[in-house]
Amino acid sequence: MLFEFEPSGVNDTYLRIGRHDASCILVPSDCWLGLLRLNYLTAGSGGIADPFIVFRALDVGWDDGRFFWKGKAHPVSASGSMAVVFAERGLIAEREAELLVQGIVSPDHCDSRDETLLLRALMGGATVTPIHDNTPLHPETDRAVVGFAIRTLGDSAIYTVDNRNGLPVLNDRVRDALRRQIG
Description:
It is a single chain. By secondary structure, the protein is of the alpha+beta class. It contains five helices and 13 strands. The chain is 24% helix and 37% strand. Strands 8-1-2-3-4-5-9 form a seven-stranded antiparallel β-sheet, sandwiched between helices. The longest helix is centred in the middle third of the chain and has 11 residues, at 113-123.
């Protein structure tokens, strides 16, 4: 999916997601823990939860209440109703809809299954806290991050994992806990 931004006023910008000359316009709804949630621009939902799709904010581009950049969007999570909207507008094929809703990223995207699993768990309330080394703080340098502590809402245990290039390295035990978190 390609995205581009359309000015709609002095302080507003819409996001247009497009593919194969079809498009869908969305507006910003919420920004939470580095993720950007976008709701479909619609007139009233009749009490039904709005369709939504969540992107990583760095992929989409978000700057002080305004969208910016153009490029390729990598969805993290979407509701079933948003997948229906995308399918109706020709933005995704029906076979892609289930993968989109389940948060499964195709091999040509840069995300890994572990990253997608972790992001979906974070959206559901899991926490990831950096663990620093025990070296005393030097005024000019920060302590190195040696690992992460991961806690889910459903487990009383705190899981510790290693750090690789600033990202948590998940193991099977942590993956199982995160899968329980997202259902």
